[in-house]
Amino acid sequence: MSFPASFAGDLQAEAERLGFVLCGIAPAQPAPHHAAFTRWLAQGLHGGMAYLARERDISARADPRRLMENCRSVISLAVRYPAPAQLEIQSGYPFGRIAAYACSTDYHLTLPRRMGTFGDVLRRMTGIGELAIRSYTDSAPILERNFAQLAGMGWIGKNTCLISPRFGSYLLLAELLVTIELPPAEPFPFDRCGTCRRCIEACPTACIRPDRTLDAGRCISYLTIEHKGIIPRELRPKLDSWIFGCDVCQQVCPWNRLSAQQSFDPAFAPRFPPSPDLHGELRLSVQEFRRRYADTPLSRPKRRGYLRNAAVALGNVRNPQDVPLLAEVLQSEPEPLVRAHAAWALGQVGTSAARTALSAARRHEPAPQVREEIALALQAG
Ligand code: SF4
Ligand code: SF4
């Protein structure tokens, strides 16, 4: 069965009707960026994300036909979430920062139903009621930005984001793998970064490498979301007020300069502020954290990772007024990971009250990693 070139335009119109701002088709083929991906893994630049280096996942990323045996086409889709400029962000003490995409319901929960509807539309359009479809949104080993570029949706910028010349980079991607050959788009032909280096220069941890990869282990998004343990001491000050993710390399990108004027997908309207009061976040009980953030991206690092980040952000402010709260966390927080970073934060404040709180906690602290942080904080003060 073959489809006319006009099919792609009709499909795009249907995708737009469902809220996808971009839709493109690429042939199922080996992913051109796979060699660069395996080099990146071999250099150990994936931080603690060991799942990326699993043999079967590496193999699947090489070619979507390893995810779906008879796959012939990959349909890439994108939705647009609010840009930071479209959110009410409060900066300065005592506010933290959350990446713009994360202030709404988790897209892993929102998008599958919409992709299912789109799949039904595709079956109707093709007249193949039994058409086999696999749909993913960051849920399978596929080089999704690479296929979005092959589908003509944009280019991969130096900040490693997919950038659409029309919509910028505040996009979430999804894919449908299908067993029929659909008329493919031309791959996006340009690198419109040109000589620009703004993202490289603005990145707080200098983790954007010249070859369009990230040293993920240093990226604030990785450290505050994926990283499970202690945040390396030398990187903690670089987190500044970021407590979940980081938008810096997108905010400085000239291709996002018109983002405030573009509408965003209502499914990603913010449910909570992108700049919460750090004091309140550090006091969140297990139940409160679950009630507020269970179905949002913030559940990914779990309460202990999120409160760890809030403690670091408060330490970066170095405000003596925060000593009572940090001391309380160090005394009574059940998670050693959070206590360890509260100890560091007290060391950053460094007043005599902070040292007194550290010394008092040292006497009965049971966890070796927290005792070590207390000792280092007392040395630093
Ligand atoms: S998300 Fe932040 S830390 Fe990561 S590359 Fe971008 S600017 Fe750097
Ligand atoms: S800031 Fe400049 S170099 Fe970085 S992704 Fe945007 S256009 Fe490319």
Number of helices: 15
Query: For the CA atoms, what is the radius of gyration?
Result: 23 Å
Helix content: 25-40%
Biggest sheet, in brief?
Answer: 4 strands, antiparallel
Query: Unreliable segments (pLDDT under 50, ≥5 consecutive)?
Result: none
Q: Quick recap of the structure?
A:
The protein has 381 residues and is α+β, with helices and mostly antiparallel strands. The chain is built from 15 helices and 8 strands.
List keywords for this structure.
two-stranded parallel ribbon; 381 residues; single chain; alpha+beta; binds iron/sulfur cluster; 39% helix
Describe the structure.
The protein is of the alpha+beta class and 381 residues long. It has a domain at 6-81 and 105-178. The protein is built from 15 helices and 8 strands. It has a 4-stranded antiparallel β-sheet, with helices on both faces. Strand 5 and strand 6 form a beta hairpin. Helix 14 (352-362) runs antiparallel to helix 15. The radius of gyration is 23 Å and the shape is elongated. The structure holds iron/sulfur cluster (SF4) (2 copies). One iron/sulfur cluster is lined by residues 159, 203-205, 207-208, 214, 219-221, 246, 248-249.
Task: Please specify the SSE layout and strand pairing.
Blueprint: H1 6-17, E1 22-27, H2 34-42, H3 55-62, E2 73-80, E3 97-98, H4 107-126, E4 133-136, H5 144-150, E5 155-156, E6 162-163, E7 171-178, H6 198-202, H7 220-226, E8 242-244, H8 248-251, H9 278-282, H10 286-293, H11 302-317, H12 323-332, H13 336-349, H14 352-362, H15 368-380
Parallel strand pairs: 3-8
Antiparallel strand pairs: 1-2, 2-7, 4-7, 5-6
